Amino acid sequence: MAQLRLALAQVNPTVGDLEGNANLVRRYAKAAAEQGAHIVAFPEMVLTGYPIEDLALRGSFVEASRQACAHLAAALADDGLADLVVVLGYLDRDPEQPPGLGVPKGAPVNAAAVLHGGRPVARYDKHHLPNYGVFDEERYFVAGRSAHLVRIAGVDVALAVCEDLWQEGGPVAAARDQGAGLLLVLNGSPYERAKDDARLALCQRRAREAGCPLAYVNLVGGQDELVFDGDSLVVDAQGRVLARAPQFEQGLVTVDLTLRAADDPPLALDSAGADSSPAAPAPGPMAERLPIARTVVTATPVEPFETRPAGQAPRLGEQAEVYAALMTGLRDYVVKNRFASVILGLSGGIDSALVAAIAVDALGAERVFGVALPSAYSSQHSVADAADLAQRTGLRFRIVPIAGMVDAFQRSLGLHGLAEENLQARVRGVTLMGLSNAEGHLVLATGNKSELSVGYSTIYGDAVGGYAPIKDVPKTLVWELARWRNAKAEHDGQTPPIPPNSISKPPSAELRPGQLDTDSLPDYALLDDLLDDYVEQDRGSAELVADGFEPSLVERVLRMTDAAEYKRRQYPPGPKISVRNFGRDRRLPITNAWRERASVPPHEPPSA
To answer: For the chain, which end, N or C, has fewer CB atoms within 10 Å of the first or last residue's CB respectively?
Structure first.
């Protein structure tokens, strides 16, 4: 057996910032060395940021990534870290892949590099390329054709990248076949609600299949609509958790491991690839056996050292986890795109109140500007609740009445009915965008997923903005998060940020006298239940009716949802927290005559 001290660097890179990301690696590599680590591992594509989308097809960017990797190796040696083994993700290319139909231009690869002694000494190319949900990796990369074992301090370390862990066979099977002492997995795994539980179970299963400890290092931070939650971890060969990092925080996790040395007897495998001992776990399907590449970095084991226990960060509760994801997505969108501040309309309602609280928590009150935009139909409590929110949070607040602006439009246009109602929302949107242009703020849209689903928003009105923090949050969860945030403040001895009246009062767009959301929509609890089945699970109308939903309700909600696709395409980006968000996950044609019920007119025009 042999010992190794492994460090996992859970960091937040920026897409395209090769120099900044390289400096991030250098900083954490130095910290790992100061803690006595022999290996430090960084996440998938850390040098380029992730996902890079069509940048992968740009030859100049591929070459810049290759050069940055080589320069980083030399810089680490200059930093006095030549003996530290650094494993990190970056973008490279496969020179042996011939061009052809369906082959990404330039044959880019999602690669892991091993840096040692001032140079890259080994490379592994991601084998399994995900092409579902938010992933389009078959568009951007060619698949690696071999597994790779790297001998470090006398231990054979098998390398894998993210999806390699989620699929059967491939590098995991190779790790077991070759008697690897450690399976090291670099990840860019986006956040979804409750995904950390599935992730842990998967790591435990794969460790048992590989017959060795498994180390999983993940990105943290926001990138456009994706949020990465970190949650890096190490499990032993039986699946017991040895170390686990916090969620949504950068940091370094160091763990001392006692591992099978390369010259130790390998596991006894039967013809199916399973350990023949009575206690062996049942193997998963082993459909493929990859060729094995080997690199010896250092063959001599390290001197025995006294081990120290690694920590396991506590898990966040359900609401705390979602709130942290929303904060992370907003903060990084603002910071990485170099906005100085954000601005949003404050209606006194629950949606804008929650968005304001998230913004203040993410950015600080001094960078958040709230505007009350009362119209002729706004209730007295709307402005009062908005002012109360501003006082509770400390954000910068002003009131801009819009009745006169609406009247000016009306004198010229003479609009009536829905058009007149929507005019108020559009005047608010113009006002916010004008202040944005004049003062340099990023406008935040405050719509939630329930409204987005059924088109209960005004395009170029309340849908205006550059980022939408709660676009993937159903209305019922909006209330849950607001109550949780206030309860947390009370527990911490702070002022609850969200006015109680904003939580308790019936929601209303206030575009006509006495208007309530329930005039146009079912009760939100019922609506969200139905939308979860239709949007998240792709269940058809017959299944929904069979599940007990009233047929006329199903027909009405599905018709509204289908007709609103063109609005969703024009809605700002926002952080993904669900299995199926609008944008990267759920992709339906705008021009679409298909309807779930034949009684619905196939060409019914959508409302605006």
So the answer is: N
> Cβ distance 384 to 357 under 8 Å?
no
Largest CA distance in the chain: 88
pLDDT reported for residue 134: 87
284 closest CA partner among 213, 185, 177, 209: 209
Asked if residue 521 lies in contact with residue 556, where contact means CB atoms within 8 angstroms, the answer is no
Of 417 and 367, which is predicted with more confidence? 367
Among 69, 137, 162, 567, which one carries the catalytic annotation?
A: 162
pTM strictly above 0.85: yes
| Listed residue (313, 30, 289, 14) closest to 170, CA to CA | 289
d(CA 478, CA 424): 24
Instruction: Kindly list the distances between the CA atom of residue 547 and the CA atoms of 12, 530, 542, 562, in Å, as whole numbers in the listed order.
Output: 43, 10, 9, 20
From the candidates 69, 126, 203, 565, which is the catalytic residue? 126
Closest listed residue to residue 108, CA positions, set 120, 91, 96: 91
- The CATH number of the structural domain formed by 318-517 is 3.40.50.620
Task: Name the packing angle between helices 59-78 and 18-34 (round to 10°).
Answer: 30
Question: Which of the 8 DSSP states describes residue 3?
Answer: E
Domain(s) of CATH 3.40.50.620: residues in the chain: 318-517
* pLDDT per residue as tens digits for the range 37-71: 999 999 999 999 999 999 999 999 999 999 999 99
The model's pLDDT over 408-437, given as tens digits with 9 standing for 90+, comes to 999 999 998 889 888 999 999 999 999 999
Which tens digits make up the pLDDT trace of 324-348? 999 999 999 999 999 999 999 999 9
**What residues does CATH 3.60.110.10 cover in the chain?**
2-296
**Distance between CA 43 and CA 87 in Å, rounded?**
9
CA atoms within 13 A on the CB side of 348: 23
Tokens linked to 252: 């370094």
Q: At what angle do helices 475-491 and 524-531 cross, to 10 degrees?
A: 110
Query: Do 479 and 350 meet the contact criterion of CB atoms below 8 Å apart?
Result: yes
Handedness of CA 378, 384, 388, 390 (dihedral sign): positive
Which helix (H) or strand (E) segment is 257 a member of? strand 251-259
CA 161 to each of CA 58, 77, 127, 130: distance values in angstroms, whole numbers, following the listed order = 22, 25, 8, 11
Structure tokens at 546: 């069979």
Cα 563 from Cα 276, distance rounded (Å): 58
Question: Which stretch of DSSP H or E encloses residue 386?
Answer: helix 380-393
Task: Give 54's DSSP letter.
Answer: G
Q: Which CATH architecture has domain 2-296?
A: 4-Layer Sandwich (3.60)
- Among candidate residues 489, 9, 575, the one with its CA nearest the CA of residue 249: 9
Catalytic residue among 19, 30, 34, 44: 44
Cα–Cα distance for residue pair 281/277, rounded to 1 Å:
9
Rounded Cα distance between 468 and 580, Å, is: 16
Nearest to 512 by CA among 608, 413, 432, 416: 416
3-state helix, strand, coil in the chain (%, to 5): 35, 20, 45
Angle at which helices 475-491 and 318-336 pack, to 10 degrees? 100
User: Are residues 337 and 154 in contact, defined by beta-carbon separation less than 8 angstroms?
Assistant: no
